[in-house]
Each structure stands twice: as C-alpha cells, then as structure tokens.
Specification:
The complex is a heterodimer. Chain A is an alpha/beta fold. Chain A is built from 9 helices and 14 strands. Chain B has helices at residues 5-14, 28-38, 65-75, 146-155, 160-179, 225-232, 251-263, 280-292, 309-322, 338-347, 356-368, and strands spanning 22-25, 42-46, 59-62, 79-80, 83-84, 88-92, 98-107, 112-118, 133-137, 182-193, 196-199, 203-206, 236-239, 244-248, 270-273, 297-304, 329-335, 352-353. The two termini of chain B are 40 Å apart. The chains are: A alpha/beta, B alpha+beta.
Chain lengths: 288, 369
C-alpha cells in the first residue's frame, strides 16, 4: 500500500534537461522511480539518462501513461508548467520550486482541485513511498520501507527526522512534504486522513513549524478521526515574533501560530511531542 | 514587502479608492506648504512600518501652515516603535461619521484570497467579535464578481449611495490585490464621511516572490544592514543577537538548529537558511556574512537533498584558505554526496559530525570556552 504514489506510478519530469532536473531525475531513477518522460521545450527527441525528452506534456502523454509530474521549473514559469501537466492528465503534481508568487500558487492549487489533481507543494521536497517510488529531491539512502507515515511542512527537517528513523531501524510507508509556502495543495489533515486508511501505516510523525494554524487543525482532526498514534515535532521554539523564518508561513503574527499554542493543542489530543528531532524514534517505539 | 501608508494610498487612488487630499513630505517647510494648499485642518502622520503610531506621538493635528510646520519638526527624526521617521504624510482632516474595517488577504487554509469586513472599524480586527466579521472568499478561478461588492456593502450596513460607492471600491481593491501581487490590502479605518467612503489608512504588503514582475513597485527597506546583504545573496537571514552563528540549509532545518542550540544552553546569533540548491559561491558569501558579525563560534548544519554536501564542503575550504577564521567552526553534514564532502573536509584537517545534537552540544561548549 502506501499513499498517493506507489511502485506502479509513472512519472514525467518537467525541466529534465536543466541542471537540477537532470541531477534529481538520475537520483530518482536510482531509487527505482518509473520516469517515463522528460519535458523541455525545444529539446524534444533527445534522451537524458535513457528517458525520452518531449517538447510538451501533451506530446509526452500521447506516448506514455503519466500518473504524476514533477516540476523542476524556475518559479516565474511554474504556473504555466503546472497547468500544462494538469491539462495533459497528470493526477499528482509535485511542485519543487521555491519563490513561486502566492497568487500563482493559489491559481495552481484551485485549478488542480477543480480537476481532481493532488498537488504536493509548492516549495516541497516531494513525496516518497519508501522502497517503491520517490518523486522529488530527498537523499535516497535514508528512505527505507516500513510502517511509519511522515508528513511535514519543511524539507531538510524531514530528512533529519527520517535520518533518525533510519538510524533506529524504523522504515516509512510514505513521506509527504506539504511545502513551506502559504498556499500549498495538501494540509496535515488531508494526509493524516490518507494515513488513517492506509493498512501499511501503523503510526504517523507530523513535522510542523510555527506560523499559521495547520497544526491546530490537525489536532482537531486527530481528536475526532484518528485511531493510529501520532508523534510530532514542531520547529521554531526559539523564533522571535514578527520575524519571518525563511518559509513564507513561518512567522508568529499578532501572537498567533506560536510554538506553545501548537504543542498544547497537540498534547491535549494525546499526541506525543518531541523536544528535539532525535527523540522522535524513541517516542514512536513506545506507541508502535 | 510592506509599503508605507502613503505608498498604499497612492495605489488606492490609482484603483479608484477615495483617499484624503494630501502629500508625502520630508521637511517642515514642505509640510507647511501642503497645509497651506489644503487650507483646512490637517493631520501630520509619521510614515513608519508600524501600527500604533498615534500612541507613540507619531500623529498630530495642525490647524494652519505654522502649526503643521511645528508638528513636522517635532515628528521628523523621532523614533516610533523602533523606526526612525524620515517622511510624513500631510493630509486633510476628514469628517468621520463612522469607522469600518476592510481587508483582502491570503487565507492559507482555504488557499484563496479572502475579503474580511466589519462594521466595527478603527480597532484591531482580532478584538472584534467573530459574528460581526464577514469573511468571503474570492475563488481565483472566478476572480471578482460584483455580488462580492454587494454582499460586502450589506455586511458593512451600507445602503443607497454608500452601497454603490462600496461596490466600486471593492472592484478596485480586488483588482489591485491581484494586479499588484499583494499579500495584504487593509483599510482600517474605512471612514463614512457624509456620502463618501474614504480610506483613512492603508496597510499594503507585496509578495516578495512576485517582485520580479512588479517592476513599478516602490522599494521599502525593512532590514538591517547585514540582513540586506544576505537578501542580495538570496539567503533568508534574521539577526537574533546571540553568539553562535548558524548556517543551515532549509528553513525548517534552520529553525530546528536554533531550537537545538537553545536547548543545550547556547545562544544563536542568527537564523540563516542557505536555501535549496545553493551553489559554492553563495555558500562562501554566506560564511563571510556570518563571520562579519563576530560570533564566538560557527555551526554549519547541512542535510543535503537538493543541496550537495560536497559543494558546501568545497566552499568552506575555499573560505578557510582565503582568510583566517578566528573562531571555532563545527560542521555537521549528511545527505546527498556526504561521502565526497567528508573526504574533502578530512583532507583539509576539518572534522565533521554526522549527528546533529552531538554537533550542537559541541558548538555550545566551544562558544562558552
């Protein structure tokens, strides 16, 4: 099982002939991801890592079944590329680029929703169904198959958590990067719900951060709907109010979205909250 | 990027939203001249990126040119909520029949713009009871439709000519929100003044990520000198005042690093997100930036995904060779190309950690030595 993507998922890489696209396509192929097409306007007919390159998504979709597409496209052009992927029938869209204008993100996310397309990101490391399929940029070696579902707002912090899981022999079902931006496709609640229904997943790690109220909404959902245990880590305890900590969402505004508020909300519904990332495996072992 | 009140009002005027007659000035002489032109009581408002200007003495009324000049003299150069006042907005004092609240912002949960309106204006919207606030989403696939203006007018309790005025105002404001790539457009208070609706204040924030296509947007600097330099390098940097300089890749990781340092009793000097896919040159510049603030120790914490550890290691060695690094540096590196990175570091006599909390404990210890 696992959620959203699995060993049968066929993937297109938009911007595959660029520096990042090429490097990460190679990493994904090494992980076992089924990349069936690359898209780079003007480069149609070439091959990269044995994968055929097409000028447009539609051309790629005529020759291949494309389930998912991943964007390695500069932020100013990301909206157009996203629309192109949705138009060509991709059902999962993984948005890696950061610094996409928020108005473009809102259009992408809402258009995708109207077409029944799942958007992972933008500004996300992607999604990994460990041992089956990786779409995005995380380092391969830490993602091993297992029972823990991971959902996170932040990328590198997820690697930290997954790295800690790996060191402790804990594999993952699926690891989802929601994305650090203000308007992203998936929420904690969307992913928690999928994990609740996934037989492979036995426990969930939520990696949150200050700002917004996504963690508080997750707490409400957990209380009402989750039977599986949830462990959390929240970043930003030492962040000062009013200062944006890199992510567009990570800012404590007018006393809202604070570290303490989030920890309290989660603890109240029975979620174990780790003080530091390396404590997560210990807490998981207690509930598994 | 936050705009000054006068910049927001200039945009309002451009989009057909009525604002008080007035102009921005930078000297008492100019203030007197504008007051003379207006010819009635004026209000002299400090232009700083903070609310609560009135309480700090940053807003004064003046009945004539002489008083306007005196008020300007007093306010210019004073500090309001930590911001030095360099400019003033001198505008007509308007008749206030009632104060309303109106804004458009991004609703993160709904992933859509939302119109927020309340008949109770003039105060912080957080202090207004939930049932007195209208929240109405604008579907980005539909955009503005006049019914949104009619509904807003209804909830603001406006009828007749004022309701018509509100429809026009809403159409303009939504257009501005969209065309200017705004994250926030707030009018508080929106004043009922006889038969007119007047924007008595403005708070406008433009999306930093859209500045590449907002070529006409004014430039407002809200950063410290070091933060400014970091921004030019494409780094997210916030000064925090401690003595352990931190460089991490990714915002979440950078935050997690601060928390870990604090947990072990250390004091972070800064938040620095070196970003994803940062090249060697940028990394070297980031290091220079950290050292310029004279920390007691430096902590480099990299978990490579899109960032390649060997790039960061090479950059570090390059800096180490080109200049003396007067303080201890602790490096933690795992992830993409970690083996290459560790080899580069050890060949140059630099020890690197693989486990974050061990490295964090070490750097806290070194900073205290």
């Amino acid at each position: 099982m696992a959620i959203i993507i699995d060993e049968n998922t066929q993937v297109a890489v938009q911007g595959m002939t660029g520096n990042q696209g090429r490097f990460h396509a190679k990493q994904m192929l090494a992980y076992g991801t089924k990349i069936v097409a690359g898209i780079s306007p003007g480069k149609g007919g070439q091959e990269v890592e044995g994968v055929p390159i097409y000028d447009t998504m539609t051309a790629a979709a005529q020759d291949n079944r494309i389930d998912a597409s991943v964007l390695f496209i500069p932020a100013p052009f990301a909206k157009d590329a996203a629309f192109e992927a949705i138009d060509a029938g991709a059902k999962v869209l993984v948005g890696v680029p950061e610094h996409i204008p928020v108005h473009d993100e809102m259009e992408i996310v809402n258009y995708a929703k109207s077409k029944g397309v799942i958007v992972v990101g933008p500004n996300s490391f992607g999604i990994v169904s460990s041992g089956k399929c990786k779409i995005g940029i995380p380092p391969n070696q830490f993602f091993t198959e297992g029972q823990v579902g991971v959902v996170a707002r932040s990328g590198t912090l997820t690697y930290e958590i997954v790295g800690n899981l790996a060191m402790n022999g804990l594999g993952q079902s699926t690891v989802v990067g929601l994305g650090g931006d203000r308007a992203v496709g998936l929420s904690f609640v969307d992913v928690l719900e999928k994990f609740e229904h996934d037989p492979q997943t036995k426990a969930i790690v939520m990696v949150g951060e200050i700002g917004g109220n996504a963690e508080e909404q997750a707490a409400e959902f957990i209380k009402a709907n989750m039977t599986k245990p949830v462990v959390a880590y929240i970043a930003g305890k030492s962040a000062p109010p009013g200062k944006r900590m890199g992510h567009a969402g990570a800012i404590i505004e007018r006393g809202k979205g604070t570290f303490d508020g989030k920890v309290e909300a989660l603890q109240e519904v029975g979620v174990q909250v780790a003080a530091l990332p390396f404590e997560v495996p210990g807490l998981l072992k207690k509930v598994l | 990027m936050k705009l000054f009140e006068y910049m927001g009002k200039e945009l309002f005027a451009e989009y057909g939203v009525t604002v008080p007659k007035g102009r921005v000035v930078t000297s008492p002489e100019e203030a007197a001249k504008v007051a003379q032109e207006i010819g009635s009581t004026v209000v002299v408002k400090s232009q700083v990126l903070s609310g609560k200007r009135g309480k700090g003495g940053g807003i004064k009324f003046a009945d004539n040119a002489e008083e306007a000049s005196a008020a300007a003299k007093e306010i210019l150069g004073m500090t309001v909520q930590g911001y030095k006042v360099d400019a003033l907005l001198v505008e007509e004092k308007i008749q206030i029949d009632k104060e309303l609240y109106l804004s458009i912002t991004v609703d993160t949960a709904a992933k859509m713009p939302v119109i927020i309106a309340s008949a109770d204006g003039g105060m912080e919207i957080e202090d207004v009871a939930e049932e007195k606030i209208m929240k109405k989403h604008i579907d980005p696939l539909v955009g503005f439709s006049p019914y949104l203006g009619r509904e807003t007018a209804r909830r603001l309790g406006l009828t007749g000519a004022l309701a018509k005025e509100a429809n026009k105002l809403m159409a303009g404001l939504v257009k501005m929100f969209h065309e200017k790539d705004a994250e926030l457009v707030e009018i508080n208070p929106l004043v009922i003044s006889g038969e007119r609706l007047i924007a008595a204040d403005s708070k406008v924030t433009i999306d930093d990520d859209a500045l590449f296509r907002q070529k006409e947007a004014p430039v407002v600097e809200e950063r410290t000198e070091t933060e400014k330099k970091a921004h030019e390098l494409g780094l997210a940097f916030v000064e925090l005042g401690g003595d352990i300089a931190i460089m991490a890749n990714g915002a979440g990781m950078a935050m997690g690093t601060l928390d870990t340092i604090s947990y072990y009793g250390g004091s972070p000097a800064n938040f620095l997100d070196a970003g994803g896919g940062t090249g060697m040159e940028e990394t070297a510049q980031a290091l220079e930036l950290l050292l310029a603030n004279k920390p007691k120790a430096v902590f480099i914490n990299i978990f490579g995904g899109i960032t390649r550890c060997d790039d960061v290691a090479n950059a570090f060695i390059q800096v180490k060779k080109s200049r003396e690094i007067p303080v201890p540096v602790v490096i933690r590196m795992v992830g993409t190309n970690e083996e290459e990175a560790l080899k580069i570091l050890s060949e140059n006599g630099v020890e690197a950690y693989k486990v974050m909390h061990e490295a964090a404990q070490k750097v806290v210890e070194l900073a205290k030595a």
